[in-house]
Amino acid sequence: MGCVKLLFFMLYTVLCQLAFSSSLCPKDQALSLLQFKHMFTINPDASYDCEFSHPKTRSWKKSMDCCSWNGVHCDKTTGQVIELDLRCSELQGKFHSNSSLFQLFNLKRLDLSYNDFTGSLISPKFGEFSSLTHLDLSHSNFTGLIPSEISHLSKLHVLCIWNPSGGLYDLSLSLGPYNFELLLQNLTQLRELALYGVNISSTIPSNFSSHLTTLELSDTHLHGVLPERIFHLSNLKTLDLSYNHKLTVRFPITKWNSSASLMYLYLYHVNITGRIPESFTHLTSLHDLDMGYSNLSGPIPKSLWNLTHVEWLSLSYNHLEGPISQFSRFGKLRELYLGYNNFAGRLEFLSFNRNWTQLEALYFSSNYLTGPIPTNVSGLQNLLWLELSSNHLNGTIPSWIFSLSSLTYLDLSDNHLGGKIQEFKSNTLSHVDLRQNQLQGPLPNSLLNQPLLTYLLLSHNNISGQIASTICNLKTLIALDLGSNNLEGTIPKCLVEMNEYLWNLNLSNNNPSGTINTNFSLENYFRVIRLHGNKLTGKVPRSLINCKSLTLLDLGNNQLNDTFPNWLGNLPDLQILSLRSNKFHGPIKSSGNTNFFARLQILDISSNGFSGNLPISLFGNLQAMKKIDESTRTPEYVSDQFAGYYDYLTTITTKGQDYDSVRILDSNMIINLSKNRFKGHIPNIIGDLVGLRTLNLSHNVLEGHIPASLQNLSVLESLDLSSNKISGEIPQQLVSLTSLEVLNLSHNHLVGCIPKGKQFDTFENSSYQGNDGLRGLPLSKHCVSDDQATTPAELDQEEDSPMISWQAVLMGYGCGLVIGLSIIYIMLSTQYPIWFLRLVVQLEHRITTRMKRHKKRY
Ligand SMILES: *[C@@H]1O[C@H](CO)[C@@H](O)[C@H](O)[C@H]1NC(C)=O
Ligand SMILES: *[C@@H]1O[C@H](CO)[C@@H](O)[C@H](O)[C@H]1NC(C)=O
Ligand SMILES: *[C@@H]1O[C@H](CO)[C@@H](O)[C@H](O)[C@H]1NC(C)=O
Ligand SMILES: *[C@@H]1O[C@H](CO)[C@@H](O)[C@H](O)[C@H]1NC(C)=O
Ligand SMILES: *[C@@H]1O[C@H](CO)[C@@H](O)[C@H](O)[C@H]1NC(C)=O
Ligand SMILES: *[C@@H]1O[C@H](CO)[C@@H](O)[C@H](O)[C@H]1NC(C)=O
Ligand SMILES: *[C@@H]1O[C@H](CO)[C@@H](O)[C@H](O)[C@H]1NC(C)=O
Ligand SMILES: *[C@@H]1O[C@H](CO)[C@@H](O)[C@H](O)[C@H]1NC(C)=O
Ligand SMILES: *[C@@H]1O[C@H](CO)[C@@H](O)[C@H](O)[C@H]1NC(C)=O
Ligand SMILES: *[C@@H]1O[C@H](CO)[C@@H](O)[C@H](O)[C@H]1NC(C)=O
Ligand SMILES: *[C@@H]1O[C@H](CO)[C@@H](O)[C@H](O)[C@H]1NC(C)=O
C-alpha cells in the first residue's frame, strides 16, 4: 500500500517536473511573438556595430515551444514570457505602436538594442510593461521624444536609451526637462541609467534613486550645478557627464561616499570649477579618469598623484604644465592622453621607465616637448597608439618605434625629425602620419606592404625615390598624402585602378613626370585628387569622369596641354577645380546643360593659354555661385561652419579620420581666369554669380566697359580687372559693394571720375594707376565733373572733408576676407591651423572614447 502511494507520488513529481521544465508557452504569447517577428526583415547591417550579431528570430517556429526560442525566456512556474533579449538580432523595420509585442504584459526584461528601427518613435505603450526591471532601446535608431509614460515603469533597475551620435549637434532623441525630473524621481529602484546623446536640456534634480551604480548622461545638454549628492551615492561605479559644457561640477571637499566604489569618472568638456580637492585621493577604485577640456591649468593637482592605480587617464585640452616625466609614477597605465597642454621637457624618462609595460596608447600631441625621442627604450613593447605630433622633437625616429610589433597608429607629424623611415616590424599599421618633418630616403618596403593601412600621410618631408607601383599593394588606403617631397617617376597606373577605398590622393609638389596615364575605374570613391606642382604632361585623363564623388581636383602647375575639360561638368559634386599654370588652350565651350558644374565654388584656370570670349554659358551654369549663404554674411560665419563641418566630418569618419575638408569652404566662391588671352567684353551675366567673393579677370585682353551688373555681387571681397583694355567709366553703382576690400583696375583704358563713398574711400593709388583718363581721389588729378556733375565748389568741399580712416572702413564693411583666405589656405595646403586640428582631434576623441565605452558594455 505504502509502496503504491510512493509510486504514485514519484510519478506525480516526475510529471510535474516534466510539465514545468518544458513550460509550454501560452499560445497567444507565441502568436504575438510570431507577429512581431514578421514585422521586420533581417539585415546584418542593422547590427553593424555588434561584434557578433545573430538573427535570433529566425529560430522562431510555430512548431516549437516558444520558451525554447532563441532570445525568449519564460517563467518556470507560470510559463509566461518574461524575458526577451533581441540585442544584435539584425532586425530592420518600423516599430509601430500597434506592435504585438505590447501584448506581452509580463515582460520583466526587454532588450531591443543594436537593431535598426529607423523612423520609429518610442511608443507610450512601453509604459504599460508594469513589471519591467530592464529596458534597453539603445543603438536602435529610435527617434523623437521619449514619452513620459516611461516613468510609470517604477520597478526599472536598468534603463538605456541612446543612439550612436552622429555629429555633436545631432540629437535624434529627446526627453523634455519635466520628463527627466519625473523619471528620476519615480524610478526609485534605478541602478543604471544611460541616456547619452539624448537632448534633455535640464538641470539634474537632487532626489533620485539612491541605488544608482551607473549614470551615463554625456552629451545631453544638461546645465546648472551638478548636485553634490551624486558623488555621495555609495554604490556609484560609473559617472559619465562628458560633453555638457554648461554643467557646472564642483567636487565635494570631504571624502565622497562613492570613493570606494567609483571606477569610471568621465568629465570631458564640462565646467569644472574650483580646485581638484584632496578628497580625490580617496578614489581608491578609480580605473578611468577623463577630465579633458575642462579648463584645468597650472601644475597637475596634487591629489591626482595619489591615483597611481589609474589605468586610463585623459587630461587633454587643458592648460596643464610641468615636466611629463612625473607621469611614470602611474604604473598601471594602459592609455594616457595629455595632448594640447603646456607640458614641456624631454622624453628621456622613457628610456629607464619600466612602469609602462602595459601602456597601449600614449598621446602627447601639441605640447612643448623638445630634444630627441630616446633611443634605448624597451619598456613600451605593448604600444598600439603613439601620438607625439606638434611638438619640437628633433633627431631621428629611433628604432624601437619601428620595432613595436603591435603598432597600429603612429603620428609624429609636425616636429623636426630627420633621418630615414626604417622598416616597420608591425603589420597591423592602420594610420601613419609623419607629415611636416625632415625625413629622407625612400619609402620602406614594409610600409608598402601593410595589409590594414588606411592613412599614409607623409607630405612635407624630403622623401625621395620612385613612386613605385608597389604602393598599389595598399588595398585598404583611404588617404595617401605624399605631397611636397622629392618623389619621382610616373604616377603608377594601378594606383587608381586597383584601389577600392582611396578617397584622398595627394601627390602635389613632387617630381613625377609623364602623362597621367591612368584609368580611373568605374567604381571609385575619390573625393580629393591633388597632383599640383609636378611635371605632368599630356591631357586630362578622360576616365576622371568615373570619379562621381570628386569634390576637389587640383592639376595646377603642371605642363598639361589640353583644351578646357568641359566634360568635368558632369561630376555632380565637383566644388573646386584648379587647372592654373598649365598649357591649356583654346576657347572655353560649355554645354547649355544647366546641371553642369552646378556645385562649383572655386574655378581657377589662370596662367594658361585660353582664348576667345569669356565663357558666358559656363558662367550661366554655375548654380552654386548664384546663391548667398545668408548665415555667412556675418563675421561669425566660421563658427557656423563648424556645425556643417561636423556633419561632413562624421559622415566620413565612419571610415576613419578625415583631415581634409571641402565642406568648410561652403561660402568661398572664387573665379580666377587671369593671365590668359580672353578677349571681348565682360558679360553682364557675371552679375548673377552673387555668391562670388573673389573675381580675377586680370592680364587678359578684355575690352569694353565694366558692366554695372557687378553691383549685384554684394559679398565680393576682391575684384581684379587689371591689365586689360577695359574702357569707359567706373560704374557709380559699384559703390554698393560694401564688402570689397581689394580693388585693382590698374593698367586699363578707364576714364572719368572714380566713384566716391564707402569702400571706394579706402582704395589707394595703386588700384587705379595706368589709366590715363581716370581722375579723382585718390589720384592726384582732380575730378572736374563726375556723373552727377558736381560743381567745383562742391568738390572742394568734398576734398576738405576729413578722410575716413581706411582701417575703420575695413572693419565696418569687410569681414570675410581674412577668414576666407585662411580657410582656403587650409584647403590648398596641408598645414592646418590649430582650431582645425582641435576640431578633428576632439571628434576623434569623442568617437574613440565612445567606441571604447560601448565595447566595455559588452
Ligand atoms: C500597424 O500600424 C501601421 C501604421 O500605423 C500599419 O501599417 C500596420 O498595418 C499596422 N499593423 C497591424 C498589425 O495592425
Ligand atoms: C539611422 O537612421 C538614419 C536616418 O534617420 C540612417 O541614415 C542611418 O543609416 C540609420 N542607422 C542605422 C544603424 O540603421
Ligand atoms: C510613478 O509610479 C507609480 C507606480 O509606482 C505610478 O502609479 C505613477 O503613475 C508614476 N508617476 C508618474 C508621474 O509617472
Ligand atoms: C523630489 O523632490 C520634489 C520637490 O523638489 C518632490 O515633489 C518629490 O516628491 C521628490 N521625490 C522624491 C522621490 O523624493
Ligand atoms: C533640445 O531641447 C530643447 C528644449 O527641450 C530645445 O530648446 C533645443 O532646441 C533642443 N536642442 C536640439 C539640438 O535639438
Ligand atoms: C562655469 O561655472 C562658473 C562658476 O560656477 C560660472 O561662473 C560660469 O558661468 C559657468 N560656465 C558655464 C558655461 O556654465
Ligand atoms: C554618506 O554615508 C554615511 C554613512 O553611510 C551617511 O551617514 C551619509 O548620510 C552619507 N552621505 C550622503 C550625502 O549621502
Ligand atoms: C597621497 O599621497 C601622499 C604623498 O604620496 C601621502 O602622504 C598621502 O597619505 C596619500 N593619501 C592617501 C589618501 O592615500
Ligand atoms: C614606478 O611606479 C612605482 C609605483 O607606482 C613608483 O614608486 C616609481 O617611482 C615609478 N617609477 C618611475 C620611474 O617613475
Ligand atoms: C635638438 O634641439 C635641441 C634644442 O631643443 C638642440 O639643443 C639640439 O642640438 C637639437 N638636436 C639636433 C640633432 O638637432
Ligand atoms: C600642345 O600640343 C600640341 C599638339 O598636340 C602642340 O602642337 C602644341 O605646341 C602644344 N602646346 C604647347 C604650349 O606645348
UniProtKB/TrEMBL annotation:
GO terms for cellular component: plasma membrane. It is found in: Cell membrane. Residues 27-75 form the Leucine-rich repeat-containing N-terminal plant-type domain. Residues 1-21 form the signal peptide. The keyword Cell membrane applies. It is a single-pass type I membrane protein. The keyword Transmembrane helix applies. It comes from the Eukaryota. Keywords: Cell membrane, Glycoprotein, Leucine-rich repeat, Membrane, Repeat, Signal, Transmembrane, Transmembrane helix. The chain crosses the membrane at residues 804-828. This is Leucine-rich repeat-containing N-terminal plant-type domain-containing protein. It comes from Solanum verrucosum. Gene3D superfamilies: Ribonuclease Inhibitor. GO terms for biological process: defense response to fungus. Belongs to the RLP family.
